[in-house]
């Protein structure tokens, strides 16, 4: 791949192009699904491609290709130039050389040495452990293992270049539990950077618990009640809100937080950081996807909105310092402002202490429709299930309820943040307690 990148650079330098950058990615991996102890599905994906941006007379042109031959590259360059000719003039900049402070590897050096038989075995182990953990587990829909290694290369006309490699490994399982005529679905997953950190026991236990804990569940009466968003659910909530932190959406006036920089937007117990320098963070990287060196920065600190996450273009338009958050959705996309790792700072309370804080509390363990939160007004109404507790003891499992309100109110009424942080993809979140929310039931 690196030799191919050198060819692209050579071709571009011979042409009359003022500024350019090249982003190249190659990914390969393996995935397997197990059902009833047998291999159900296997995939061995291999992808590669090159994305090219050119700036001609302050006009941006973009093209990409998965054909990395000389002919494929020449065609992509010509397409980028043609696209620049038809674009409106604007002021575009490319990143300048800077030294990354990332001081650990992002890849498992043993990736290529893991035998396929071992990958299949760990998926089978996950299914077996789920089946043996509780007699009420009647069906395991699927147990899966997957991995990938991604290599990233970048070069621009400022003679700024870098490359790095990342790996990820994941497990997931879906099951059905039955008891006394009731049935509930359960699932769980885990994503790690190093193969040795995969833990089938933990994934199996969480998946089984997510189902059996809801057996016999019923709606509760409609009322206002303290609510705990379990770490998994609060991570999903912050993921849905994260679009509001992005400079591109602030420019388009599609952000709940537009115009709030420097103001309180949440309870003082809430702090959220974008941190690309965490060893466990799947979104960690030394540079963003347009070559800017990455760094940790506060988004919300003690309730105050401190930063938007910006790429070079939105940083200039917003008169905001660059943050190293130019992220591409894929090889076919231009870099735009995005997140690396979102980290909600944990508090002091264990989950056991958190549930005992109010006399009565609804612990939300699953939510449906979080993606429907209005990104501008903050209004939401989501379906939830979980557990009703009184003085720390489970009174009843709960399904068929909704939680409605406004995100602004929710964030400002967080009273406690737990210390039970868990990674959900590139988001690390603990459980949080909200003083009171309207829960719709019967």
Automatic annotation (TrEMBL):
<feature type="coiled-coil region">
    <location>
        <begin position="116"/>
        <end position="143"/>
    </location>
</feature>
<keyword id="KW-0175">Coiled coil</keyword>
<dbReference type="InterPro" id="IPR035068">
    <property type="entry name" value="TldD/PmbA_N"/>
</dbReference>
<dbReference type="GO" id="GO:0008237">
    <property type="term" value="F:metallopeptidase activity"/>
</dbReference>
<dbReference type="InterPro" id="IPR047657">
    <property type="entry name" value="PmbA"/>
</dbReference>
<dbReference type="Pfam" id="PF01523">
    <property type="entry name" value="PmbA_TldD_1st"/>
</dbReference>
<protein>
    <submittedName>
        <fullName>Peptidase U62</fullName>
    </submittedName>
</protein>
<dbReference type="GO" id="GO:0005829">
    <property type="term" value="C:cytosol"/>
</dbReference>
<feature type="domain" description="Metalloprotease TldD/E central">
    <location>
        <begin position="110"/>
        <end position="215"/>
    </location>
</feature>
<dbReference type="InterPro" id="IPR036059">
    <property type="entry name" value="TldD/PmbA_sf"/>
</dbReference>
<feature type="domain" description="Metalloprotease TldD/E N-terminal">
    <location>
        <begin position="21"/>
        <end position="84"/>
    </location>
</feature>
<dbReference type="InterPro" id="IPR045569">
    <property type="entry name" value="Metalloprtase-TldD/E_C"/>
</dbReference>
<dbReference type="InterPro" id="IPR002510">
    <property type="entry name" value="Metalloprtase-TldD/E_N"/>
</dbReference>
<dbReference type="Pfam" id="PF19289">
    <property type="entry name" value="PmbA_TldD_3rd"/>
</dbReference>
<comment type="similarity">
    <text>Belongs to the peptidase U62 family.</text>
</comment>
<dbReference type="Pfam" id="PF19290">
    <property type="entry name" value="PmbA_TldD_2nd"/>
</dbReference>
<dbReference type="InterPro" id="IPR045570">
    <property type="entry name" value="Metalloprtase-TldD/E_cen_dom"/>
</dbReference>
<dbReference type="GO" id="GO:0006508">
    <property type="term" value="P:proteolysis"/>
</dbReference>
<feature type="domain" description="Metalloprotease TldD/E C-terminal">
    <location>
        <begin position="222"/>
        <end position="441"/>
    </location>
</feature>
């Amino acid at each position: 791949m690196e030799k191919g990148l050198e060819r692209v650079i050579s071709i571009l330098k011979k042409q009359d192009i003022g500024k350019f950058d090249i982003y190249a990615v190659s990914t390969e991996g393996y995935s397997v699904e197990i059902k009833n102890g047998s291999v159900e599905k296997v995939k061995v994906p291999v992808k590669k491609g090159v994305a090219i941006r050119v700036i001609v007379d302050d006009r941006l042109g973009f093209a990409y290709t998965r054909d990395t031959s000389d002919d494929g590259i020449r065609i992509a360059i010509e397409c980028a130039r043609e696209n620049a000719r038809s674009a409106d003039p604007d002021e575009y900049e490319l990143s300048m050389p800077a030294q990354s402070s990332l001081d650990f590897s992002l890849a498992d050096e043993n990736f290529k040495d893991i035998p396929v038989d071992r990958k299949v075995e760990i998926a089978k182990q996950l299914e077996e452990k789920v089946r043996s953990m509780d007699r009420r587990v009647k069906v395991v829909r699927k147990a899966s293992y997957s991995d990938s290694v991604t290599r990233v290369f970048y070069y621009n006309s400022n003679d700024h270049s870098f490359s790095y490699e990342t790996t990820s490994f994941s497990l997931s399982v879906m099951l059905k539990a039955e008891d006394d005529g009731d049935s509930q679905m359960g699932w769980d997953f885990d994503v790690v950077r190093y193969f040795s950190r995969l833990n089938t026991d933990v994934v199996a236990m969480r998946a089984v618990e997510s189902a059996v804990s809801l057996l016999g569940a019923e709606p509760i009466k409609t009322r206002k009640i303290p609510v705990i968003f379990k770490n998994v659910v609060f991570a999903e909530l912050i993921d849905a809100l994260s679009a509001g932190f992005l400079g591109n959406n602030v420019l388009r006036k599609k952000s709940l937080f537009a115009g709030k920089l420097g103001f309180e937007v949440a309870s003082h117990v809430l702090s959220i950081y974008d941190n690309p320098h965490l060893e466990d963070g799947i979104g960690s990287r030394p540079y963003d996807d347009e070559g800017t060196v990455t760094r940790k920065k506060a988004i919300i600190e003690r309730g105050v909105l401190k930063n938007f996450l910006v790429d070079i273009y939105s940083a200039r338009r917003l008169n905001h310092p660059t943050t190293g958050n130019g992220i591409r959705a894929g090889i076919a996309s231009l870099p735009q402002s995005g997140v690396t790792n979102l980290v909600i700072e944990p508090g002091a309370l264990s989950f056991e202490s958190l549930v005992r804080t109010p006399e009565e509390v609804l612990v939300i363990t699953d939510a449906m429709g979080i993606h429907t939160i209005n990104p501008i007004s903050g209004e939401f109404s989501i379906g939830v299930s979980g557990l009703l507790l009184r003085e720390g003891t489970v009174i009843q499992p709960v399904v068929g309820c909704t939680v409605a309100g406004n995100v602004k109110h929710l964030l400002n009424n967080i009273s406690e943040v737990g210390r039970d942080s868990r990674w959900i993809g590139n988001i690390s979140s603990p459980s949080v307690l909200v003083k009171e929310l309207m829960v719709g039931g019967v």
